[in-house]
Amino acid sequence: MRKQVGIFVAAVLYYSGLVGLARWLMQQRGSHLIILNYHRASTGDLYRHLLYLRRHYRVLHLEEALEELFQPDRDKQKRQDRRTPLVVTFDDGYYDMYTHAFVLARKLQVPISIFLIPGYIENKKRFWWKEGRYLAQHTQVEQITIAERTYQLRDPAERVLLAQSIDHSLRHARSVIEREESLSRFRQVLGVPDERAEEQEKDRSIGWEEAREMQQSGRVSFGAHTMHHPVLAYMSDADEVRYEIGECRQKLEQNLSRPVYVFAYPIGKTEHIDETAIQAVRDAGYRWAVTTLRGINTPDSDPYQLRRVASEVSRHWLVMAAETSGIWYLFSPVWKAILDKEKVSNLIKGFL
Questions:
Q1: From CA 179, how far away is CA 171, in angstroms rounded?
Q2: What is the C-alpha to C-alpha distance for residues 100 and 89, in angstroms, rounded to an integer?
Q3: Given Cys at both, which of 63, 65, 96, 175 links 42, Cβ 3.0 to 4.6 Å?
Q4: How many angstroms separate the CA atoms of 255 and 249, rounded?
Q5: Which H or E run contains 148?
């Protein structure tokens, strides 16, 4: 129901011309940079997303767009395209970056930027934030007690709660070693059998060979996302924070043979970033860093706390268009307030 309401409202905003008006107003208000934040490429309709973005925005690689934002007079006379600049970023480097995003980037000649996690490139394991759900789904036990809470695992709802508990524990680990040890214990007590490599395929990272091929195409650029994706603000050792940030840059530059200047904070909300992490990013030689805080950037933005607009390929392209223009967030309180109205359900049925 919520998804249908969202599509309906987005369609009204788009076909009424309000989305186009919002795009035009942004162009009139000076220099802006929109950075979209995706994760997966194969779970929706990325093709239509990129088609729309290519038509209505000036899509750039991230470093190119940031240089332009913070050096507004550079090559200004050469730019004939007055559309608002936009960057398409993907966090984590899932394998479908190679099988889907890369294919579309070449086909549509649209640049994309991907933040990589070298530790997962090299160990070829499933990303840790996917483990809770996997372990809860594949456990061989019927009951387990974790943190003084007993889960009855014949009940699917209890498995969901167990997955959330595992994720919470891994997310709040004070070090990468602590996280991996916890994960090993969860796997053992839940009796989850070893899995075949192909079972991890959809939830693993691209490899170095794929990354180099993508980079050589000229359509894909890469940034850093720590060595092992810990939540930096929760870590107890400042030296490990510096290692995760600095070693990531060195590993990427070593394997891709080019400088890396942009960093993405894992998870990336205010509570996941502290001054230790921000200073470590500066000290490691990065010029810019992106968060997952929502917003559009201007030349006055903090280069080490840049904002992005969350988007996922599972969303209808009309919703993505409204979100990217900024108008979606002006109207979202309205459509959320009417979600429970029965008359809206009938209206949507007639529209769809």
A1: 8
A2: 14
A3: 96
A4: 10
A5: none
